Amino acid sequence: MTARNTLLDPLFNKNPVLLQVLGICSALAITNSVLTSLIMGLSLTAVLAFSNVCISLIRKHLPNSVRIIVQMTIITTGVIVVDELLQAFAPNVARALSVFVSLIVTNCIILGRAEAFAVKHSVRMSLLDGIGNGLGYSLVLLIVGTVRELFGAGTWLGIAVLPLARDGGWYIPNQLLLLPPSAFFIIGLLIWLLRSWKTAQVEEPDYREIRFYKAGERL
Amino acid sequence: MNNDSPQKALLVVFLVALVCSILVSVAAVILKPIQLKNQLVERSRNVIALTGLVREDTALTDDELLHAVEQLDIRVIDIDAGRFEPNMKATDIDARSAVKDAELSSAIPGADDLARLGRRSRYEVVYLVWNGAALSRMIFPISGQGMWSTIYGYIALEGDLNTIAAVSFYEQAETAGLGDQVQDPGWLAQWQGLRLFDDQGTFRFRTGPGNIDPSSPAAAYQVDSLSGATVTSDAVTQMIAYWFGAHGYRSLLDYLGSHPPEKPRETGDTES
Hints:
A: mainly alpha; two-stranded antiparallel ribbon; B: alpha+beta; 6-stranded antiparallel sheet; globular
């Protein structure tokens, strides 16, 4: 496993949202605009890089009996610090993200990477893995945020792109896209697109119909 | 030391907790002043927007906002007494912390507690806007429990202390995309010109289902509910009903009805 793969695989080959279907709660809730998606992606990337590095640093001293709770303490610390920083330097975005910054604590991607990667790998590789997975998550959020803001509000990052009928233009926005359920459809479509491109990601069907053929029946 | 021995586990847990708590405390202490200033600026932005003195498209810097608020006629009111409290300074009032202090707050009787606040401060800060010698607007703080969070806002009444001039909510954590529409400018604009009380002085204001017949008598008191946010909409109705009810600002409003507030001499002309 090379450093390059560790960093870049989570973008398309092992995307935490699209392949492992983790971190869906926030991906549905805060992707109604590009700005909130961007800040959420950066926040999660920062927390993930921080927690991966810290957990990798103490990985040889982690007692099995309290492993998870120690990891959670480190993750929670990262989340609180990021939340405080956002409230100080980006108060408007912090308001828009409301509880979802604190809910990064429960984002399965973070504990997942800690357990699956950081406890077994060097600090450097864990940092790259954290940044890579954070970027993979951010990429999905940005795509979903772009679709939702563009077609739901006619803007991209607050810049008017499609002139709204309400203001004398031609575009009538689809307000469903501003509501969380629309992200279900978009993420579903993204998973379909990605798996059509990288067919190795297609899962085995859960069950298979077994037919018994009578002797002499033509197959 | 063996990694799985209880001593090692305790040591690791202790050290991790120590380092993490230091990190969190340092971040909280260093960033607190900046966060407090942000909150003050945000509150000021709301108050200034409600005064009607500044055009909506004018962008003021943070310092200009804080300065503009200082120019307003700011007064402390004693809600329990229903009077202005001239002996207290607005900067000494912190209504949110006051609810933890039995001296400075009172429990809201269950039947009156429509906004589900539990306690409220005895003192609040209000803002008066003068147009020449006439009171043009009076701005009151309001708050109430929504679906997930306490919603904080301001409501500006016209000089008749009945007609709504403007309203804004500056802090809430309601459902994204649904309840957070309480901050939608289009919806807030619908409040303008509605009235709280009818001619007999009965409180009538409410949020209600759409398609209000504009000619019906209720139309003057009713704003559309937020679609998909019934709980938040009802909470807003209850919040206004509480704050302009008997336990809220009602006794002050009744007092001001017979004793109109006077423009303070030392305050300059706020129209400039």
